[in-house]
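Moderator note: this is an archived Q&A kept for reference. The question asked for a predicted structure of one protein chain; the sequence and the answer are reproduced below.
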Amino acid sequence: MTAYQLLGLNKSFVQGLAEMGIEHPSYAQTQFIPAASRHDSNIVAVLKGGSVYQDVYGLSLLSAMDPLKPSLQGIVLCNTREQCNQVAADLEKRASAVPGLRILALPGSTSIEEQAEQVRGVQVVVAYPGRLVDLLTHGVINLHEVSHFVLHGGDELLNAGMREAIDILLMAVEHRRATWMLTASVTDEVKELVRRFMPQAREITIHDVSLAGRNIVHQYYLCRNPLRFPALKRLLSVEYRWRGYIICLTRNDGREIAEKLSISGIPARFIDSEVSADEYNHLIDQFTTGKYHWLIMTDVAVRSLQLPPVPAIIHYGIPSVPEVYYQRCRLLADMGAEPAYAASIITPKFEADLIDVSHQVNVHLERRIIPTPEDLTEARYRRALERYFDQERVEVPEHLMVESVKNFNKLTKGEIIQMIATAEYRRIREKALRETDLNLIDTPEPASTPASAPVETEEETKPLPVSSNGSKERLFVNIGQMDGVTESTFVTHLQRALGIPPTAISNIDLKRTHIHFDIDPEYAAIVRSELPKYAVKDRAVRVDDASPTSRDRPRKSKRR
């Protein structure tokens, strides 16, 4: 069942929307559609922010219409003739998901005779109130089968002096099942209209959480939970020009992150939501002047403190609801042509939740690879070059300067650059290559029969230990996370050192002290014979069978 079906739209309409590429509801729709899906629903929806009214109620209205009935079933009243045309055009685009469903704008700029011909067979009209009253008075429109009545901008309609026309129309549509008012404010006139014509109306307030139109790059990084901080540190090391806020779920997390980043040479400070005014001003001053590159905080601080806008935000843990994600991203500065950045570091368990949040706040979310040791080498090298030009000049003893000039005069400018670059790059690369790859690997599902497996006769076939999937062997190796091993580096080593393709390996289970994995039978013998020739931290590598046939074999009794 799709998201729109779960909210309450009918199945055939949802299928039509999916064919048009409309599959993910906005946050405002998730608030309105469930309330509107009740058979009898009077709703006053108070919209805060810039939500487009027809985007909120449009799908609910169209879903309730019957395209097989060639009679008027839905009315939308708008404040201006231009608005009538725009709303009708928007609804018509979505109505193409239902063959036979017709929408008509009745703005009042066309003759009554011409509109009398156009209205035949139409299920929904988007009308200027005065013109609809004229059509009703002339007897050219029948409102007896209208089930849904929408006041598009109720406060604006009433402020424009259209109360009399609205009263006439509401009294004429006596068999309506649902009356919906979309409004930016609840004035006394709105309350009076609701009291008279919308008994037991449900009032819902919908805040605009759309981030569409903001120049923000939304991205996320996946890793195992124990590797979240190393991934954060790696990201900040590569994106060393970023400045901003790291937002986490608890104060303890925030304090720990700030302490670890400071130890790692990344200027960071935790800011508590209950900070005093003097301390707050002092911290913000230090942050804006560059003493701290990152302020770490919780969502409570985001809501309660007046924080200056920044070019980057890192979500250290998923915001559970769209409002929280929106609230955080409001802190991002308008960088003009340059984008601001919102990066999330999460575990695979929460990937689907984050993607769902991104749909509701109307942003494109992209998965990025955690920077590799090679990326780290390049970033550190560029930063080292920048520091050559930014570093303070110190007085070098004259005799050492004379010696330096004498030696450098033997070289060309190109040779000097090459010599300095080589020395710096070698130093940085040796350090970076001691780092591990923090990325998850997407392991393909094993084929039932390996394509390259040799065909064996019945005499040649010997029983092999098999894994839980029945087509592979499962092996144990006595190296793990404490040895700096990741799933990615392990698979890469088997590929480069032993020539085993990554597709032959699956179901990797990496622990602190060891690793289990499935492997195609044709490669198992290679691992058993060749991998023990290696050593990790002066400890011999051991390979054992870990398949059910070897693990589950009953032990011999020691009793005699």
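Archived answer notes: Residues 47 and 206 are 5 Å apart (CA to CA).
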